[in-house]
Write a structure and sequence with these properties.
With about 325 residues, the chain is of the alpha/beta class. It has helices spanning about 40-50, 120-125, 125-140, 155-170, 180-185, 200-205, 215-220, 245-250, 265-275, 290-300, and strands spanning about 1-5, 15-20, 30-40, 60, 65-75, 85-90, 105, 110-115, 150, 170-175, 190-195, 210-215, 225-235, 255, 285-290, 305-310. It is built from 10 helices and 16 strands.
């Protein structure tokens, strides 16, 4: 089968090359999926460069964690799926999943049935970003109706889903993004919008219960100032936010560094929101699998609205 593989880590996207590799065989508890589409996430760029999860990744490496496709074979003991089922998921993360390929294998519990409402492309765009948003908001922050939630990078892959999930839980949602993206945020249900490039968030957005913090560095610490006493900031880049936990303690607020987890039940929850019309996926751009390098170039610019997806066999 064709896989977009790399034999060295590299700053240049050119390290990703088309390679013929054997079709993977599912072992106990796994299924094989014929890939229809594979989502692209910022972590794909970090791992291509050799900057993340080096302790569990090795060369040659096939990138990609987001997948949608059709089950073609089930391993011993799998009762959840049958050949022909349409599925989506984020298998094995942060261990290699190899979704930039024509076939992948995955533990059955790392997948869920793709709702009829979603195309292959949307199904591949949803898992990693959607699970991150769901787990940060619902499992970690336990967001509830009436709470004030600040979503940073609100028009990005995780952010645009977090806005909708928080809204579906009955929260008052404040979305931070460049002003050109405020129309989209309002369509997604944001109650307030703020342009973080011209407004100091901590000076302007006050007394929130939950901050979904997508980027680290100084802003990751400064945004603790948006919280009410006892509020919680959940950071997707806690490892790149020096002093976060100490400053949270000083201020009497909570800070949690979070890493997304493969989670079939979380995928079912996202699918349920889709079926109820409470969650949609915005896809900015679709590339053919062979143009994975160009997709990485676009993702690395850091301005994505919604998601970038590779079309594989759809
Ligand atoms: N810990 C985890 O488990 C986990 C899971 C998923 C993602 N992440 C991390 O979370 C971050 C966002 O992920 P994503 O998938 O949403 O990325 P993405 O889709 O590439 O996000 C793009 C958005 O980020 C905004 N942005 C870029 N730089 C920014 C900055 N310095 N401050 C505020 N906003 C900024 C841009 O908005 P504007 O154009 O409006 O500026 C753009 O719309 C990435 O670093 C990713 O690696 C972590």
């Amino acid at each position: 089968m064709l896989a977009m593989s790399q034999h060295e880590w590299g700053d240049s996207e050119a390290v990703i090359r088309p390679t013929e590799v054997p079709v993977p065989e599912p072992v106990f508890g796994e299924v094989r999926v014929e890939v229809a589409a594979a989502g692209v996430n910022p972590v794909d760029v970090y791992t291509r460069r050799g900057l993340a999860y080096n302790s569990v990744l090795s060369l040659p490496f096939v990138n990609g964690w987001d997948v949608s496709g059709t089950v073609t074979e089930v391993g011993y003991g799998v009762a959840r799926f049958r050949p022909g089922d349409r599925v989506f998921g984020m298998p094995r993360f942060p261990h290699a999943a190899g979704c930039y390929a024509e076939y992948v294998t995955a533990p059955a519990r790392h997948l869920a049935r793709l709702p009829d409402e979603l195309s292959w492309v949307e199904g591949a765009a949803l898992p990693l970003a959607g699970l991150t948003a769901w787990q940060m908001l619902v499992e970690v922050a336990q967001v509830s109706a009436g709470q004030r939630v600040l979503v940073t990078a609100a028009a990005g892959g995780v952010g645009h889903l977090a806005v909708q999930i928080a809204k579906a839980r009955g929260a008052h949602v404040i979305g931070a993004a460049r002003s050109a993206k405020h129309g989209l945020l309002r369509e997604l249900g944001a109650d307030e919008t703020v342009d973080y490039t011209v407004t100091d968030l901590a000076g302007h957005v006050r007394e929130v219960d939950v901050v979904i913090q997508m980027f680290g560095g100084e802003q990751g610490v400064a945004n603790l100032g948006c919280l009410r006493p006892g509020g919680i900031l959940v950071s997707a880049q806690g490892a790149w936010t020096p002093g976060l936990h100490e400053r949270a303690d000083e201020r009497g607020v909570r800070a949690v560094s979070y890493l997304v987890d493969p989670d079939g039940a979380g995928l079912e929850a996202l699918a349920d929101l889709v079926r109820k019309g409470l969650l949609r996926v915005h896809v900015e751009r679709v590339f053919p699998l062979a143009e994975a390098a160009a997709a990485h170039r676009l993702s690395a610019e850091g301005r994505t609205t919604g998601k970038i997806v590779l079309l594989v066999g759809a």
